[in-house]
């Protein structure tokens, strides 16, 4: 596990954190994959979680897997940028120090998070004096989002209905974001996202 000594001052941060949000089945992961394949210098924040790893997940790559006691200790010590209890079952959180370290090194830094998380980041960023660019990945239409969700076949009908209801709330909040990218084509959407990042980091 990384050492989390939050002594990094935001005064040394030259660039802004890119926060990426979007509803389920909008294709955030696909856009990120294309983006990072084209621009491997981008750093994607790895969240900590108290849930158990799945068979194909690895510590430090997909998540930092920690127990509830350690999570609570780190939360008390102010080591998270934001935290959430998801589905009432497991805690998730964004580790603050790695984010600050990469920003201080002028590394393009990306955080993928849900709407509630983005709102919490906005509150904490203001307190920390950290500048953030908020980007929303939207589906071409709600019907297309529904088609994608049902087509991937990873949820029960009840879970699909719950996710679709949440997606309506998230899409309605897209006006809270600095940029909205419609993911009608992953390559085009990734290029649009890169243009935002490149402008923030003075990259070609």
From TrEMBL:
Q: Pfam families from the entry?
A: Guanylate_kin
Q: What does the similarity note say? A: Belongs to the guanylate kinase family.
Q: Name one GO molecular function term.
A: GMP kinase activity
To which species is this protein native? Gardnerella pickettii JCP7719
Tell me the ranges covered by the Guanylate kinase-like domain, including all copies: 15-198
Q: What is its main location?
A: cytoplasm
- Give any Gene Ontology cellular component: cytosol
Supply the alphabetized keyword list.
ATP-binding, Cytoplasm, Kinase, Nucleotide-binding, Transferase
Known InterPro entries for this protein?
GK/Ca_channel_bsu, Guanylate_kin-like_dom, Guanylate_kinase, Guanylate_kinase_CS, P-loop_NTPase
Please name the Gene3D superfamilies in this protein's record: Guanylate Kinase phosphate binding domain (3.30.63.10), P-loop containing nucleotide triphosphate hydrolases (3.40.50.300)
What is its biological role? Answer: Essential for recycling GMP and indirectly, cGMP.
- List ligand-binding residues for ATP: 22-29
Q: What's this protein's name?
A: Guanylate kinase
Q: Provide the E.C. number(s) assigned to this enzyme.
A: 2.7.4.8
The subcellular localization recorded is: Cytoplasm
The main enzyme category here is transferase
Give the reaction(s) catalysed.
GMP + ATP = GDP + ADP
